[in-house]
UniProtKB/TrEMBL annotation:
Function: Decomposes hydrogen peroxide into water and oxygen; serves to protect cells from the toxic effects of hydrogen peroxide.
Organism: Variovorax ginsengisoli
GO molecular function, one term: catalase activity
InterPro entries: Catalase, Catalase_AS, Catalase_clade2, Catalase_clade2_helical, Catalase_core, Catalase_haem_BS, Catalase_immune_responsive, Catalase_large_C
Residue span of region Disordered: 1-23
Family to which the UniProt record says this protein belongs: Belongs to the catalase family. HPII subfamily.
Protein name, as recorded: Catalase
Length: 725
């Protein structure tokens, strides 16, 4: 064990030390490394380096059961990756309700504020393979398994509140279109290719989610800084059998933040595990990520009160129409012990519900109710995946399902059927009289039809609402993302169809997207004439919804933000100290970035320990940059391409930058005049202030810098496209 692992293992709760029921259960299956090696049958292995041979230079003998066992196991180590959401990262934690929700639902885990329900949460990208990069443009999965006292409840959502399609019948088509193209398996983890946009342009119902995916929601800064949504309308049912429709929201404590697209692409190469590492490290450091669970509730009799259909998964309920009530919190406080056993083998299913939570007739949800169990059977090798430790309920479970691949449970007795009189000596019959999960008795008198409801036919009003609700820079990001994706297409007709559709969202948006694409002007009429086009406009109930934009979200704290402090021999360490202290006191994390590992010598010959180098940890790994004063240090950095690039790139990505004294030289070439007021998000500290040890002035500078970091990104910074970085 490395010292770090040892420390982590020491900290982790064991079964006996008050851990959650789920941790106690998992501990029964856990094993620690041992110095003795045995076969799977427990036989001690005498030599783990050499196979059994006929003479030292002779052929290996078939008899070598030890070699065979080892190789055979290795040969079967891999299981199929998930058909979608293959790339994921997960953590354990707990959920706690703020006050009883008994008025709306009888779900046990939503009753008692003193109860902490164990959870396992897996975040994922959708399109990429298991080994693909974290920061690609995509929706993110946000799947929560609650191990409740009434059985497992899975809330299997995304970080976008609407979906591309309205009916599960189209799901395989959607996924086939977005996955790498079947003839050459390219591109990996990217929607910027012909088949995706071919499909999207022919299916205008995708338009609303496309707007979200092309926004900064598609490239989150961190898994800890994104919202989650149950997407579909579900039902809460209380103990009197009364139903409310409900939409679920997860609101991150740290706010909702995105990367710059150029940055996201660079990170995909520099650190493909960027989000996974960020989640892991935050939890190891004790910075436990937190979300609040929000609900929008609509009484059963108000089902038709809105212009959109609650059953249509391409629609959201604007928070201005139905406020989000925060009803509890989710905290992730423990990393998994084993990626495969937990993160890979966990099996989610929207059909894992508990009494008090039920489905709506959303046709996408209805299809999902079939798909998830089905996929686990091939992915996890049989029908007994519920017995895997990570999937096992913490409450007792029992039925007469029997046998199958990899069955673990040893079911005792003669009886495997119901009703029976032989099982436990008395007549045993399940008749629904004694509770259990009761489906909401919805009144249905349907003709059997294979048709889409006309109430699903408005494909543009909410796409427009989303676009209109964005700030000016966020609108620019959406335009740039559409341009990027569509410019990658080889077939101009697909680009044209797409911008024709966009003209129904916003004329100007469509024109701006089309400008650099070598196609004609957007033609709204042409779009309207194509098969599949629906624009039966619903009444506009909300023109603009501030809740849909990301800017200014969060509580203004800089907790866990990463700040680079650039150093080289000769920088002024005195000017660094007060600023570093203030940043760290505010909860941000500093790393000293230098030309080499080891230490550099400050102007006053103090040693400054270097954590990482300009080369191995570039600016895209940080949220902000601090450049100290010190003539010789700054001169040295100006000679280093990596150091200059570091600052220019951070500027281009609209990050907070603080330059002290001569450090301003590193902004040279960006057209910034040190004498005039600095660009937004750039804090300039004149040398005399900090060099002369004026503590109050240094404090002020530090506070300005912390304020700039808290804004996350200064997207309104002008002319960043002109920066060559
Ligand atoms: Fe799905 C996985 C979320 C529609 C079929 N889906 C999967 C995961 C998430 C979602 C988060 C990963 C779970 C994990 O971490 O293991 N899926 C959604 C959302 C949808 C959605 C929010 C729409 C609102 N999905 C959807 C449809 C179907 C599927 C319409 C099929 C009819 N989804 C699957 C699947 C997966 C899956 C193929 C792959 C691996 C798995 O289930 O366990 O069955």
């Amino acid at each position: 064990m490395t010292p770090r692992n040892k420390a982590a293992a020491g900290r982790r709760p064991k079964a006996a030390d008050g851990a959650s029921p789920k941790q106690a259960q998992l501990a029964l299956y856990a094993e620690d490394a041992s110095t003795q090696l045995t076969t799977n049958q427990g036989l001690q292995i005498p030599d783990n380096h050499n196979s059994l041979k006929a003479g030292v230079r002779g052929p290996t003998l078939l008899e070598d059961f030890i070699l065979r066992e080892k190789i055979t196991h290795f040969d079967h180590e891999r299981i199929p990756e998930r058909a979608v959401h293959a790339r994921g990262s997960a953590a354990h934690g707990y959920f706690q309700v703020y006050k009883s929700m008994s008025q709306f639902t009888c779900a046990d885990f939503l009753q008692d504020p003193t109860v902490k329900t164990p959870v396992f949460v897996r975040f994922s990208t959708v399109a990429g393979s298991r080994g693909s990069a974290d920061t690609v443009r995509d929706a993110r999965g946000f799947a929560v398994k609650f191990y409740t006292r009434e059985g497992n409840y899975d809330l299997v959502g995304n970080n976008i509140p609407v979906f591309f399609i309205q009916d599960a019948m189209k799901f395989p088509d959607l996924i086939h279109a977005v996955k790498p193209e079947p003839h050459h398996e390219m591109p990996q983890a990217a929607s910027a290719h012909d088949t995706f946009w071919d499909f999207a342009s022919l299916m205008p119902e995708t338009t609303h989610m496309l707007m979200w995916a092309m926004s900064d929601r598609g490239i989150p800064r961190s898994l800890r800084m994104m919202e989650g949504f149950g997407v579909h309308t579900f039902r809460f049912v209380n103990s009197r059998g009364e139903s409310h429709f409900v939409k679920f929201h997860w609101k991150p404590k740290l706010g909702v933040h995105g990367l710059a697209w150029d940055e996201a692409q660079k990170i995909a190469g520099k650190d493909p595990d960027f989000h996974r590492r960020d989640l892991w490290e935050a939890i190891e450091a004790g910075d436990f990520p937190e979300w609040e669970l929000g609900v929008q509730m609509i009484p059963q009799d108000k089902e038709h009160a809105y212009g959109f259909d609650l059953l249509d998964p391409t629609k959201l309920i604007p928070e201005e129409l139905v406020p989000v009530q925060k009803i509890g919190k989710l905290v992730l406080d423990r990393n998994p012990d084993n990626f495969f056993a937990e993160t890979e083998q966990v099996a989610f299913h929207p059909g894992h519900v508990v009494p008090g939570i039920d489905f709506s007739n959303d046709p996408l949800l209805q299809g999902r109710l079939f798909s998830y169990t089905d996929t686990q059977i091939s992915r996890l090798g049989g029908a007994n995946f519920h017995e895997l430790p990570i999937n096992k309920a913490v409450c007792p479970f029992h039925n007469f399902q029997r046998d199958g691949m990899h069955r673990q449970t040893i079911s005792r007795g003669q009886v495997a059927y119901e009703p029976n009189t032989l099982g436990n000596g008395t007549e045993y019959r399940v008749d629904g009289a004694s509770g259990g999960f009761q489906s909401y008795p919805e009144d249905l008198s349907p003709p059997k039809v294979r048709r889409r409801s006309p109430s699903f036919d408005d494909h543009f009003t909410q796409a427009r609402l989303f676009y209109n609700s964005q700030s000016a820079p966020e609108k620019e990001h959406i335009i740039a993302a559409f341009r990027f994706e569509l410019s990658k297409l080889e077939v101009p007709a697909i680009r044209q169809r797409m911008v024709d559709n966009l003209a129904h969202v916003d004329e100007k948006l469509a024109r701006r997207v089309a400008e650099p694409l070598g196609i004609g002007a957007p033609d709204a009429k042409a779009a309207a004439g194509r098969p599949g086009f629906r624009d039966h406009r619903m009444a506009v109930e909300v023109e603009e919804s501030p809740a849909l934009r990301m800017v200014d979200s969060g509580d203004g704290s800089v907790k866990t933000r990463k700040v680079a402090i650039l150093v080289a021999d000769g920088v002024d360490s005195a000017s660094l100290k007060p600023i570093r202290e203030a940043i760290e006191a505010a909860g941000a994390q500093c790393k000293v970035v230098g030309p080499r590992l080891g230490a550099v010598a400050s102007a006053s010959k103090r040693q400054i320990e270097v954590d990482v180098t300009f080369n191995n940890t570039p600016s895209v790994m940080f949220d902000a940059v601090l450049v100290p004063a010190g003539k010789d240090g700054v001169e040295a950095m100006l000679q280093m391409g990596d150091a200059v690039h570091f600052v220019h790139e951070a500027f281009k990505h609209c990050k907070a930058i603080c330059v002290v004294g001569e450090g301003v030289q590193l902004l040279k070439g960006l057209g910034i005049d040190p004498e005039s007021s600095p660009p937004v998000g750039v804090v300039m500290a004149p040398t005399p202030v900090t060099n002369m040890g004026d503590a109050t002035a240094a404090q002020q500078i530090a506070q300005q810098f912390v304020g700039a970091i808290a804004k996350h990104r200064h997207w309104e910074r002008p002319n960043v496209d002109a920066v060559a970085a």
